[in-house]
Every structure is written in C-alpha cells, then in structure tokens.
Amino acid sequence: MAPMSGGTHGTGERHERDRFPASVYGQGSEPDARFSLANERTFLAWIRTSLALMAGGVAALAWRRTGLALTVAMLGALRVLPAYLGASAYVFVALGAGCALTVVVASHRRYRQLCRALTSGDDAADRLPSGRLPTLLAALVAGGGLLAIAVVLGTLR
Length: 157
Hints:
- 69% of the residues lie in helices and 0% in strands.
- The chain has helices at 22-25, 33-66, 69-74, 81-85, 88-120, 124-127, 133-155.
- Residues 34-61 form the DUF202 domain.
C-alpha cells in the first residue's frame, strides 16, 4: 500500500502530515480515489447550494431596494413586489444566510464522517446514518416560500 500523499517537498517522498484534513487522513489507509472524489464532489455541490441560498437572500434585499428593472421588463406582473416586500426583505436575507450556514456546517460534518469511514478500511461507510440535510433544507426553503406568500397576500388587502 502506498503511503498517503500530501506533498513531495522536492525530495520525492510524500509526507502524511500535509494531507488535509489531518485528523482524517493521518490514520488508516488511502481510500479508493473514486469514492474519495465522489465524497468531495458531493461536498462541493452542497457548498454551491449554500452560496445559491445566500445569493437568493441578498437578491431579495436588492430587489426591495432597487426594484430590479430587469424584473419589470421580464415579469411585468411582479413589478410591484418590491413595495410589498418592505422590511420583510431582511427576513429573507436572514433566512438565506441561516440556510447557507446550516448547509455549510452539516455538509462539512458529513464530509469528514465519510472521509474517516473511507480511510478506516472497515464497513463504517455502510453504517453511517442517512443525511438529514436535504430534508432540513427542503423544510427551510418551504418555510421561506410560505413566508413569501404570506407577505404578499398580507399586503394585497
């Protein structure tokens, strides 16, 4: 079995201590690259999701402040929505930031769990609990959608 990689430092020798995260890769054996890379791709997909959630919250605030002329041109029926958002745009920013933070923390935790399971060499990956992150995220986004509907319907009266 080849030693764990990390860097050669010009000597051709690899140093285990350079592998990130050291708490995961400093023990056990090197996992199959396919599984390790799949785990990293999944983690990065969750990071992209968190960035999209954060951008959605910021977009609500920008929409409230500027009205976004693009929206007026493309979606004429929604051109009055910025007036209805009012201060609740800040709620959407907080909701987007909260969802993004939840996704980042939960996905990093899951990534580290799977890395440890892959390097330990046993069947620990099969015993990991299924991720609750998709369910939690769906509930938070659905709650935000219901909040948006309530805001719009409440201001139409």
